[in-house]
Amino acid sequence: MVTSSKRTLSLEEQIGFSAGEIYNYLHTNGTTSFAKMKKELDLKGNFADLGLGWLARENKVDIQQKGPAVKVSLR
């Protein structure tokens, strides 16, 4: 669980933090497979999925199926 200072972040804050990590990763690395990004970020539990969903809902990412892989990039 992610902590900030002396308090534990709420679930929504943790998802938002994960979305920020994903956004920064894509900004630095460009288009990548979701599996590779998920592995490299090492977000716990399903926070990579939730963070990507957050960014998709905000229309900040482009998600495409390329064969068996899912490719993700910033819009």
Short characterization:
The chain is α+β, with helices and mostly antiparallel strands and 75 residues long.
What report would you give on this structure?
It contains 3 helices and 5 strands, in the order E-E-H-E-H-H-E-E. It is of the alpha+beta class. It has a single domain, classed as Winged helix-like DNA-binding domain superfamily/Winged helix DNA-binding domain (Arc Repressor Mutant, subunit A, Orthogonal Bundle), CATH 1.10.10.10. The strands form 2 sheets. A 3-stranded antiparallel β-sheet has the order 3-5-4. A two-stranded antiparallel sheet has the order 1-2. The radius of gyration is 12 Å and the shape is globular.
Predict the CATH topology. Answer: Arc Repressor Mutant, subunit A
Name the CATH class: Mainly Alpha
Tell me the CATH architecture. Answer: Orthogonal Bundle
Tell me, rounded to a whole number, the average pLDDT.
92
Shape: globular
Radius of gyration: 12 Å
Straight-line distance between termini: 29 Å
What class, by secondary structure content?
A: alpha+beta
Q: How much beta, percentage-wise?
A: 15-25%
What share of the residues lie within helices?
40-55%
Number of helical stretches of at least 4 residues: 3
| Low-confidence residue ranges | none
- Count of folded domains: 1
Largest sheet: 3 strands, antiparallel
Give the strand line-up of the largest sheet: 3-5-4
What's the count of strands? 5
**What is the chain-wise order of helices and strands?**
EEHEHHEE
CATH superfamily: Winged helix-like DNA-binding domain superfamily/Winged helix DNA-binding domain
